[in-house]
Specification:
globular; two-stranded antiparallel ribbon; 213 residues
């Protein structure tokens, strides 16, 4: 989403120059994608609500803890952590299954996992599924529930980040017309409408693939 928005806005200097507004807008769209996706996954019993409630405090702490880290070395560190999560996902695709006795960590472990996932997600303007899905599968959560729960976890990440982007951007100079803080509303509306229409299709396909397996 971020590279796509950056490319679309490449000829509009007022947008590109306004503190990476396209990155903040991308994060805001996850609010609506997540709501649509969660509803579709919940209907199919694919959201592990206990995991969501246990990890959310860390999610909120991580977002606010990294809210000012959008430049310098922090994004590079975020990319490294995100890449590590992808590598774990690749190992799972290769059928390197976790130890059968492994389960979810305790309260401190869940808080720490949530803080790292949300902090990196906020820096990278992503919903965090690249890390949450491998983490949950690593803890022996069924893959279909890992995917559905990851869509739910994306909501508090996006909500906290968007509130911060709007609040810190109010009154900022040089923002394009149609902005609410650092969120560009025309792009938010267009992307969110399309994503809310297609997210349920993804949930349906994910559930169908797992059942066929």
């Amino acid at each position: 989403m971020v590279p796509m928005l950056a490319g679309l806005f490449a000829n509009q200097g007022s947008i590109v120059g306004s503190s990476c507004i396209w990155r903040r807008t991308s994060m805001a769209t996850i609010l609506f994608t997540s709501m649509s996706s969660v509803r579709a996954h919940h209907v199919r019993g694919a959201v592990h609500w206990k995991v969501l409630t246990r990890i959310t405090p860390g999610i909120l702490a991580g977002v606010w803890g990294f809210s000012d880290g959008g430049s310098g070395a922090w994004p590079r560190a975020g990319r490294a952590v995100c890449a590590a999560g992808v590598r774990v996902g690749v190992s799972l695709l290769l059928d390197r299954k976790p130890k059968p006795m492994r389960g979810l960590p305790g309260p401190l472990g869940m808080f720490s996992a949530g803080a790292v996932i949300s902090g990196v997600s906020s820096l990278m303007a992503i919903g965090g599924a690249a890390m949450t899905v491998p983490f949950m599968i690593f803890c022996n959560i069924p893959p279909i529930q890992a995917v559905g729960t990851a869509s739910a976890i994306g909501f508090p990440i996006a909500l906290s980040s968007t509130i911060g982007y709007v609040a810190t951007g109010l009154g900022a100079v040089g923002l394009p017309t149609g902005s609410l803080g650092y969120v560009y509303l025309p792009a938010l509306v267009g992307i969110s409408v399309a994503s809310m229409m297609t997210a349920p299709l993804g949930a349906r396909l994910a559930t169908g693939c797992r059942q066929n397996d």
